[in-house]
Write a structure and sequence with these properties.
The complex is a heterodimer of chains A (128) and B (322). Chain A is mainly α and 128 residues long. Chain A contains six helices and no strands. Classes of the chains: A mainly alpha (128), B alpha+beta (322).
Chain lengths: 128, 322
């Protein structure tokens, strides 16, 4: 019974879970892209003439703040960018190459595997 | 079955690599090409070992200190590190270089160009991706040399004071980051094999964020090698003007106009500089050539018209202009 349970339910579930997690970065990127694409469109049409460098700078400052940078540092950092760079950050701050965020996700998967192993579920790997 | 083990193996590797250490991806098996670079190592390049995720600030500290500054990685973390991204973005690394009055010059995307900078005594900041293209692990490091015996690049990287990375692994990891490489230049020093357009672009950006002194020195260095470069000359004039050296600025604007009499921005700025000195007649005659065909509504014409209005307001005795 236990064997049957492992084979028929647990195995597919865990494999699905792993697949889902491994796909996460791509899925995340897509969602963020939709959000930033909206911003681009907004900027390109109605507000193109209105949005001044100042507003762009303020947007970037707020983005940095939202991502954990302190307000005064964010202000100085947004001001240190050229308008073209500000535009790039405004559109892609979540997608541009940075540190090792994605590796963390894999790390979490590994920890899950480790827990599964400790629980004896790793049998799946040996008996498939 | 084997796939699963391979997966686990990859996961273990990834875990070991979490943070910004520079682990090596076993899958990189590009055939080595011929290469005959000489041994070189910038041994005096300082080293700032990274704390977790802080390879950006640490590498930045390495190149900035190598350029003669005295600044630590913790300070730079406040200028480039984004907590939610657990890393630093390339544009902010570039902006931070500017904030410290240095010229961030993007090196050509081939290894020889990096070696050329090293031979010019410039360590090169690089972005590497030793992970996979689909699962990237971005990492900043500083190339300081090349060792022909082991065919390896020498880097200040992560916690490694002297990391040897085979040329092979380096090229693979560098390619997956888009071959991004940056030289950090003291104003007045040009990079090896300078791409003038790219260098001037970096200097103009430096000027645009208020680093006038550094920008001026950089323009001077271009002009010492290419005295006929109108853009650098115009930049020099503008930085002089911004720094209040009006007489010198006028000289430079005039030189620009000697090379290119139809340089409307120079005409406009020259007139404006005369106006700041209270020289109404000179301002007026300087601006005259720009007042022909200036009704296009483009920014440049708007500026010319604004200068004309300013002259008229500031100099009530001036004859009417058309």
């Amino acid at each position: 019974m236990t064997q049957l349970f492992k084979k028929s339910i647990l195995t597919p579930t865990i494999l699905l879970f792993l697949l889902t997690i491994l796909w996460l970065p791509a899925a995340n990127a897509a969602v963020l892209n939709t959000g930033s694409a909206e911003t681009i469109q907004h900027t390109a049409t109605a507000d193109k003439e209105i949005i001044q460098d100042f507003l762009l700078q303020e947007t970037v400052q707020l983005q940095l703040q939202k991502m954990g940078v302190s307000p005064e540092l964010a202000k100085a950092r947004a001001a240190a960018l050229t308008p073209m760079e500000q535009q790039l950050l405004q559109q892609k701050i979540a997608d541009l190459p940075a540190g090792a965020g994605v590796v963390e996700v894999i790390g979490i998967v590994f920890i899950v595997l480790l827990i599964l192993e400790l629980l004896g579920v790793t049998d799946i790997f040996k008996k498939i | 079955m084997r796939t699963v083990y391979h997966l686990v193996y990859v996961l273990i590797l990834s875990l070991v690599a979490s943070g910004c250490t520079g682990f090596i991806n076993k899958a990189d098996r590009l055939p080595p090409i011929e290469w005959d670079a000489k041994a070189i190592e910038l041994t005096t390049t300082p080293f700032f070992p990274q704390t977790q995720y802080h390879c950006g600030p640490a590498s930045l500290a390495t190149v900035l200190n190598a350029s003669g500054l005295n600044i630590d990685a913790a300070t730079l973390a406040g200028e480039v590190y984004i907590p939610d991204r657990k890393g630093a973005l390339q544009v902010e690394m570039i902006a931070a270089v500017r904030r410290h009055s240095r010229v961030p010059y993007q090196v050509d995307k081939d290894l020889q160009s990096i070696i050329d900078q090293l031979e010019h005594e410039l360590p090169v900041l690089v972005l590497l991706n030793p992970g996979y293209s689909a699962l990237p692990v971005y990492h900043y490091a500083v190339v300081i040399g090349y060792e022909p015996g082991s065919d390896a690049l020498i880097l200040r990287s992560g916690e490694d004071y002297r990391l040897l990375m085979s040329r092979h692994q380096f090229l693979s990891a560098w390619r997956k980051s888009g071959n991004w490489a940056l030289a950090v230049l003291v104003p007045g020093k040009l990079p090896a094999n300078v791409n003038l357009e790219r260098y001037l672009g970096a200097v103009i950006a430096l000027e645009s964020v208020g680093q006038w002194h550094a920008a001026r020195q950089s323009y001077v260095s271009v002009l010492s090698k290419w005295p006929e470069n109108t853009l650098a000359r115009f930049g020099l004039a503008n930085t002089l003007r911004t720094e209040g050296k009006l007489a010198e600025a006028i000289d430079q604007y005039r030189q620009v106009l000697k090379q290119d009499a139809g340089h409307i921005p120079a005409i406009n700025n020259l007139a404006d500089t005369f106006l700041r000195l209270g020289r109404c007649d000179d301002a007026l005659s300087a601006l005259a050539p720009a007042l022909i065909n200036n009704a296009s509504g483009a920014d440049i014409d708007k500026a010319v018209n604004m200068t004309r209005t300013e002259i008229q307001e500031a100099c009530p005795d001036t004859p009417a202009m058309h």
